[in-house]
Amino acid sequence: MSKVSSPVLLRRILSLTRSERRALSVGIFFLLLGSGMTLVFPQALRFIIDEALGSRNQALIDRAALGMIAVFALQSSSEALRFYFFVSAGERIVTRLRHDLFSSLVSQEVAFFDEHKTGEITSRLTADTQVLQNAVSGNIATALRSGAQAVGGLALLLYTSPLLTLLMLAIVPPVVVATVLFGRRIRQTSRKVQAALAEANGVADEVFSGIRTVRAFAAERHEVGRYQHSLEHAVELSNERSRLSTAYVASTSFAGLAAASVVLWYGSRLMLRGEFSMGSLTSFLVYSVMVATALSGLTDIWADLMRASGSAERVFEMLDRQPSMPSTGGERIRELRGLVEFQAVRFAYPSRPDVPVLQEIDLVLQPGEVVALVGPSGGGKSTLAALLARMYDPQGGRVLVDGKELRTLDPEWLRQQIGSVAQEPMLFSGPIADNIRYGRADATDSEVEAAARAANAHEFISRFPEGYRTLVGERGVQLSGGQKQRIAIARAVLKNPRLLVLDEATSALDAESEHLVQEALERLMKGRTTLIIAHRLSTVIGADRVLVLEGGKVVQSGDHAALMGQEGLYRRLVERQFVAA
Ligand SMILES: Nc1ncnc2c1ncn2[C@@H]1O[C@H](COP(=O)(O)OP(=O)(O)OP(=O)(O)O)[C@@H](O)[C@H]1O
């Protein structure tokens, strides 16, 4: 489960702070000042008891009290400043971390997203990084302060009485053993807790994005149950973690306070024998409680850091993950003609490697040719289209454009050459114009409008009071299916690609809408090499060639008329499926 050792992880967590060295140095300065002031306090106490009370001198008592107030004022303001510098640095660190993590996530190959739920991924981005932020801004600061107090306190203890100090230090070895034993288990459990929380997040995310389906099936109670179940798992694990942490913290803090009691006992005997003054014993005790508290604070923080390490492991794992498919780099073809070839292509989805989806596909699309894919559901049509856009790499055979294998081409460039219109186009929240511009951010307003006209979208857009500035919500819910399709077509028009991958909507549009979409698509396909997953008779009739895909193989190919002339799947499909079209 945990592959990295704690020191390596801690070093990596610490390395995050490098960019904030200045702010943190200032924070550490105030931290040391504050801790120093805390250490001065017992000295003042000793002074009051031994000197001022001893000599019954009122003026000395007044001076000592004033001095103490000054010490505390300095200590509190240093603490406040320390807090401010550490927390603000922590915010900046985690912001940068989230940015880097997000960049790494979005550049992962598509197959990665098949294997991970979106909720799980966003949980890494938010929950895990939050735990890290707490570690960086809170725990490290407190650890430094406790460390400074422990070291300073010990030095003063040694100075006051080496013998009592050694007595006190007898607790160190058992505490170290407990730290090592508990630390490891806490970290492992923590990792599991974060994973379980991510799982629960995944469920929530799925339900929210599919809320219409949930509502339609009145499945709210079922989903609440599912969420509850995954939460319970997280709670179980986090209870286990709490048990471990509390047992650890309680036993170590008991050890510390027990040691202080032993010191009190032995110190009192020394005082009775006249070897120790009252003030020294008091200050010694305060120092030992201080050191014990600091040490138990340190163990507390250690437990917290181990928790953070569980999250850190997950975050760093993701941050370091190299996508199996690069997103840039490679050759660019100067004047793309649009010749597409599939040569003996074999493919299975990486998430289900033993289920072959495409088998020995051989296919040539001449520049400008429109090829329609038809076939029974699950036959592999969408998969074939996805391979052309290089969403995945085939396990066998090659896909080429203009004679160059896709793997050798710059993926970013390749995707600029491909326009795609999905069955349910995805619109991003923002103005309509920005959505059309998605494929070409530098397009001018008049270019956007021209594209919308070509896509038969201009008219309905200009009917909105705000025209092209109309906002579409998340997933563009307030637009109809046909309108979304036309926005997606406008996007493709604006991009002006050589290659097109189209997925016709299966859902029936009303006749008017249907006609507008169809017309826009025809305009878009003109002169471009097009692979279209066809659901309408008019599309297959208009295509230069039709391929019938069944069980991942091309079982028939030819134009509509030729295929209708043959006994076979195509004719059956047309008679059955397209009858109504
Ligand atoms: N992301 C994925 N991960 C794993 N398997 C997948 C994935 N997408 C599709 N499949 C599987 O691959 C096979 C082919 O699916 P594909 O979507 O290519 O078929 P299709 O012919 O386009 O079907 P439809 O007409 O219903 O859209 C199916 O068995 C499907 O279960």
CATH class of the largest domain: Mainly Alpha
Q: Report the major sheet.
A: 6 strands, mixed
- Strand line-up of the largest beta sheet: 6-9-10-3-11-12
Hetero ligands: adenosine-5'-triphosphate
Task: Compute the average pLDDT.
Answer: 85
What's the shape? elongated
Distance between the termini: 55 Å
* Integer count of domains: 2
What's the alpha carbon Rg, rounded to whole Å? 35 Å
- What is the chains' assembly state? single chain
Unreliable runs: none
The CATH superfamily of the largest domain is ABC transporter type 1, transmembrane domain
Report the portion of residues in β strands.
Answer: 5-15%
Total number of strands: 12
Percentage of residues assigned to helices: 55-70%
In short:
The protein is an alpha/beta fold.
Explained architecture:
- Helix content is 65%, strand content 11%.
- α2 (21-55) packs parallel to α5 (118-160), α5 packs antiparallel against α6 and α6 packs antiparallel against α9.
- The longest helix is centred in the middle third of the chain and has 53 residues, at 220-272.
- It is α/β, with parallel strands linked by helices and 581 residues long.
- It has helices at 6-15, 21-55, 58-106, 110-115, 118-160, 162-169, 172-209, 211-216, 220-272, 278-320, 381-388, 411-417, 432-436, 445-454, 458-463, 481-495, 511-525, 537-542, 560-564, 569-577, and strands at 340-348, 356-365, 370-374, 396-401, 404-405, 418-421, 430-431, 471-472, 499-503, 529-533, 545-550, 553-558.
- The model has no long low-confidence stretch (mean pLDDT 85).
- The radius of gyration is 35 Å and the shape is elongated.
- The chain has 20 helices and twelve strands.
- It folds into two domains: 9-320, ABC transporter transmembrane region fold (Up-down Bundle); 340-580, P-loop containing nucleotide triphosphate hydrolases (Rossmann fold, 3-Layer(aba) Sandwich), CATH 3.40.50.300.
- Strands 6-9-10-3-11-12 form a six-stranded mixed sheet, with helices on both faces. Strands 2-1-4-5 form a four-stranded antiparallel sheet, with helices on one face.
- The two termini are 55 Å apart.
- Bound molecules: adenosine-5'-triphosphate.
- Residues 114, 349, 351-352, 357, 375, 377-383 line the site of adenosine-5'-triphosphate (ATP).
